[in-house]
Give the backbone structure.
Amino acid sequence: PPSDGRLIRPADEPVSAPIRFDWQEITRESLVRRAELRRQRWVTRRFELEQIASRNYMLPRLDAVARQRWRGFGHDLLASDSTGRPRFDNAYMDLVSGDFQEWQVGVELNVPIGFRQGAAAVRNAELQLTRARAVLREQEHIVLHDAANAVAEFDRTVVVTQTAGRRLDAARHQLDAVEAAYDADKAPLDFVLEAQRRLAEAESSYYQAMAEYAVAIKNVHFAKGTLLDYDGIVLAE
């Protein structure tokens, strides 16, 4: 590619601004912006929190307990007429009087023997976290590999488009020269037709190369996770 990074285009084609991709910036944006990596990082964070929570099973449990009860005594739950009857013949009346209340305040310590359940929970959380981190590292490796392939494809399309542009310029100059020679009766018509055929093939190859060049640019932005930004789409956790 030329030193300024521009494409070689025919004289009558507009020249766009040069496009350059910095590999360090691509790797940084790919690891930060790719949606699957962002999703896997949150999965990894969830397992980290689960591992922290599972360690609580390895600790003894100390609870503060309190209780208050009202009791009622009587031979009958509800008596239609309690006048003149002993006190404990009506349990409901004895209950609402509040004379028999119980209070209980204390602490309760629970220490599992062997911590088998806690150790199993911690081990399971550690295995899930290790797996999530391994998946994240593998996804990062795949993302960087895809980004490298996209950049290599972009560089290839740049060279192909430059070559196609030079070929199109040469075909146009050749057609002009052959037509001038034909007008001066120095070249047969077959040469003009052949020059026109070559020009048509060169134009077809050039515009096909330009299409591949545009697709390659899109693929680079997709590989580094900035394609959604160009489409006005923002992801938020």
